[in-house]
Design a protein that fits this description.
single chain, 19% strand, six-stranded parallel sheet, 2 domains
């Protein structure tokens, strides 16, 4: 295995573990900031390190389009290109292709689509998605899948699931045959004492399978069972946060989690608000990601212990208090609500930086508190 997953505590509040990857250890349950194009929007890498981000997400579709995966490979991989020495997870590109809708055509072989940037034609197959992710050199890659829209009837969900399972096997076969081509993996082809000390048999990327099945519990069950038979080192629950009610999201997670191996990391993709990620972690989810903290920040929406705060509101024009009195992040320690509102009103770029720093700090602190609660609880 090129990752290890050690569970330290399991209780009614979830589970705490350490996920050891080629670029370091990740404490779970973990929230992963989204760095779509090799950057977490508005935040430089040294600030992510100060926030103690241990694992972030990169986007295969966007990085494939620009600057291009082969260019990134030639520059030593995504870690070196973006000056990030910690872990990276890349998605497969499936969700972005799904979101193109009018610009794509799905067949058994893969997906033909047109770039949202310039309209140029491209094609992603499971094999090509693996090649792109291996070239990027992520620590965790994701199997190529089709994300089913909501609402989707049973016939549509059934056909999509069957194809996604075939794509999962093709992804795994191709990935296993070529994973040593990751830029940094080529530098460590011999098992070393340090790798053994880290608990890793080899320093190569890992591939996770993705459970699909729409909003049908029996299809989710079948998807999970068949993916487990393929023996992935980790499993994700995909196809959520596509417009369904929160209650249905929770139902699909609760249905699927018990079907996934307890000794492997479990990842729910694309969720959610702070209270949601805390809830899912307490259900036993190990990994989550979402663009919400960064996207909301750019629009002036701050997450606080007192609820959501729209910093653009006039009521904060002379408010000298911090965004969140209970927050110890560098933004709340130094800047007032009045100043943050002024930056938004003046359309200063610093507004996005400070708002994003606070929101990411709030999300990461939410996960830290959940880990602390799990560790303190009785089994």
């Amino acid at each position: 295995m090129s990752l290890t997953f050690q569970i330290h505590q399991t209780s009614r509040l979830g589970r705490c573990a350490t996920l050891t990857l080629p670029h370091g250890v990740v404490e779970t349950p973990v929230f992963m900031p989204v760095g779509t194009q090799g950057t977490v929007k508005a935040i430089p890498q040294h600030m992510l390190e100060e926030l103690n981000v241990q694992l972030l997400l990169g986007n295969t579709y966007h990085l494939y389009l620009r600057p291009g995966h082969e260019a990134i490979r030639r520059m030593g991989g995504l870690h070196r290109f973006m000056s990030w020495e910690r872990n990276i997870l890349t998605d497969s590109g499936g969700f972005q292709v799904f979101s193109l809708s009018d610009l794509r055509k799905v067949t058994e072989e893969g997906v033909a689509f047109r770039s949202h940037i310039d309209g140029s034609s491209h094609f992603f197959s499971p094999e090509h998605s693996m090649d792109v992710q291996i070239a990027l050199g992520s620590d965790i890659a994701m199997a190529f899948d089709e994300c089913t829209e909501y609402p989707a009837d049973r016939t549509r969900a059934r056909a999509s699931l069957d194809m996604t399972l075939r794509w999962a096997q093709r992804s795994k076969d191709h990935f296993e045959a070529h994973k040593h081509g990751a830029p940094w993996a080529q530098q460590r082809t011999v098992i070393s004492d340090q790798l053994l000390e880290d608990g890793l048999e080899e320093k190569t990327p890992s591939l996770f399978g993705i459970v699909q099945g729409g909003m049908f519990a029996d299809l989710r069950r079948e998807s999970a069972e068949r993916l487990v038979e393929m023996d992935f080192p980790g499993y994700a629950i995909g196809g959520l946060s596509v417009g369904e009610p929160r209650e249905l999201t929770r139902e699909m997670i609760a249905t699927t989690l018990p079907l996934l191996p307890a000794d492997r990391p479990r990842y729910v993709m694309g969720v959610g608000y702070p209270d949601e990620i805390a809830e899912y972690a307490r259900m036993g989810v190990d990994m989550m990601d979402c663009v919400l903290p960064t996207r909301a920040a750019r629009h002036g929406l701050l997450f606080t212990s007192e609820g959501r705060l729209n910093i653009k509101n006039r009521q904060y024009a002379e408010d000298q208090g911090p965004a969140d009195p209970s927050c110890a992040c560098m933004v709340c320690r130094r800047y007032s609500r009045a100043y943050l509102r002024h930056l938004m009103a003046a359309q200063e770029p610093l507004a996005a930086v400070l708002n994003t720093l606070h929101n990411l700090a709030f999300y990461l602190e939410t996960m830290r508190k959940v880990r602390e609660e799990i560790a303190a609880a009785k089994a």
